[in-house]
Amino acid sequence: MVHLGAILGAAFAATSAVSARPSPENSLGSTKKRAAAAAAGGGPDCPDYASHATSHAHEPFSSGRYRLPYQRPSASCRRFQAPEVEATIEAMRKLVRDPDLFRLFENCFPNTLDTAIAWHGLGEGTADEELTFVTTGDINAMWLRDSANQLQSYRSLLRPVSGKDKASPSSSLSSLASLFRGTINLQARYIQNSPHCNAFRPPAESGLTVTGGFGGGDIVYPPVAHEVVFECKYELDSLAAFLQLSYDYYAATQDGAFFGKRFKKEEESVGDDDVEFRSNWVLAVEAILATAEEMTRGTYGPDGRTLFSPYQFQRPTTVATETLPNGGAGSPVQAGTGMVRSAFRPSDDACTYQLFVPANMMLARYLAACAPIVAQLGRRHGAAGDIPTTASETRLSNGDAAHTSVNINVNDLFDDDDYSNYRQGHRTRYYHELALRMTDFAETVRRGIERHGRVHHEVYGNIYAYEVDGFGSHNLMDDANIPSLLSAPLLGYVDRHDPVYRNTRRFVLSHANPYYMTGPVINGTGGPHVGTGMAWPMSLVVQIMTTDSDREIVALLQQLLSSTDGLGLMHESISSHDEGVWTRQWFSWANGLFGQMLLDLRDRKPHLLAKSFQ
Ligand SMILES: *[C@@H]1O[C@H](CO)[C@@H](O)[C@H](O)[C@H]1NC(C)=O
After folding, report:
1. Which of 8, 107, 289, 539 has its CA 20 to 30 A from that of 459?
2. What is the pLDDT of residues 37-53, one digit of tens each?
3. What's the mean per-residue pLDDT of the chain?
4. How confident is the model at residue 27 (pLDDT cuts 50, 70, 90)?
């Protein structure tokens, strides 16, 4: 058997090593909240999870025909403990009748908390800047997209945060809500530092150092700080991922105040007269808008001259999808489409054409979804609700919200003209304008997608293209990584019953999609990242989450269950012809998504959890 995962793992070990300075002060950033240290397991006595997850030996085995090992680390070696997650596993034990399917859930759902929370603590010298460093699992760096998705698996377990109640369980550093806030805060730092980059090193406060990265000599414009950035591939969906995570947290907790927090150092006063009133989160949103607006620029100016590309990337490599043509600018893009360029895909492979449709869908949806978060910051301190704000959302059939509009009447804000009101009015106007800029831009992107991102396919009719260039060329395919075309309803961009989506879905799951893999082991989409012949379990999970058909879901669950090579975890990819050939034994994002999918079935199709797969 060839274990590509083991080979890739070894390659990473050679280029990237993580080492922790075991200082309790450093691990917390503040001596005040020692409790969090106890929550972070994974000491030197704990097994290396990369090898742990490659072993079949962990008893007890599941009692079904696949005899899947128990792959969770022992309780003291888990990186973060969340009682809600343990309670969910226990509740699912009663609902999922098939012993192998339950074992898969039990191994996969907590995997991010068990293995990928490398550090959770406070920012240097602040009392409330929670920070969470989430690795992908087998790579010791934090990807914006992966970490947002990794946490998303636990979104349904968040509960409303009560802002006044300091003793509320969700305000403690050891809460799941704190883990979300910490990830949002750290992403906000990264995005302000380097909005074109996809993967980052641990914050100084963690005491962790990660070597490697930068693919051995990447040339990147704009230049970036190597001590912060691990890799700098500009992927539009990384920016959208931050907005998605922010919206997920806000929608579940209603914790609007969090997004206005400034995290000033303890010794600095947070005066009302501060010129800079914007929070870290708001500054990150500004950075996203500035980056995305700039990346709507086309390759040529009105006079035919080639314009300077705001982002350029070149890597010395033999792999075509790891570098960009045209001096690092990528393939030419038509100006004025309304769509935003992306240099790379969520697979970290170069875009063939830079108007990458799935990331534009994700940006359009989550820019609009986050506008109400910005708008509510314009309310008076301590007088929440005194500004007439109406945020209306159209619900999609899958429970996600599609269009969001914000409507604030600024004239209602001023009841007298003293200075305090003037200052408050200034802030309110700022937030109002920022929220409108977000909804307007989201609408422009959406119109661009519908005008330039759709094509007529002679077999499937009107479908979304994977990528277009605005000149009329398009790339018809789908890749397993989210955002994908298949995942468009999960992104909340389109209803899963929408006719264009339905056509697109039939296309994606057919041999007309050059990256749809079939065989006796597993049928699903893959992509150029690992190569042809390899189907990604993640795509089967998305296929389950975007269909109403019981037959389709059962067939897909059967494939997921039977193709783990007996290891009981989600791989990155599996040969559609040989179960023993796979990549990545430890892929936290896919594991979490599998768990999220089964919880979705519990709510949507509970009878399927009672099925036997023996
Ligand atoms: C994949 O699809 C083909 C038909 O294209 C079918 O014959 C095969 O059984 C499927 N494989 C699995 C694992 O279900």
Report:
1. 539
2. 333 466 778 989 999 99
3. 87
4. very low
CA of 273 to the centre of ligand 1 (A): 66
Q: Which two tokens stand for residue 588?
A: 């936290």
Domains of the chain: 4-43+79-284 (no CATH), 295-309+335-511 (1.50.10.10), 515-614 (no CATH)
Q: Which of 516, 523, 559 to mutate to test the pocket of ligand 1 (most atoms within 8 A of CB)?
A: 523
Tell me: pLDDT of 403 over 70.
no
Residue-level length of the chain: 614
What spacing in Å lies between the alpha carbon of 523 and ligand 1's midpoint? 6
The minimum-distance atom of ligand 1 relative to the CA of 562 is 13
3-state secondary structure of 71: coil
259: exposed, middle or buried (Cβ count in 10 Å: 0-12, 13-18, 19+): buried
Q: Which atom of ligand 1 is nearest to the CA of 523?
A: 1
Ligand 1 pocket, 523 CB below 6 A?
A: yes
pLDDT digits (tens, 9 = 90+) for 443-456: 999 999 999 999 99
What's the token pair of residue 174? 């050891």
Q: Any residues with CB less than 8 A from the CB of 496 and at least 6 apart, and which? A: 396, 397, 398, 489, 502, 546, 547, 548
The dihedral built from the CA positions of residue 540, 545, 547 and 549, taken in this order, carries a sign that is positive
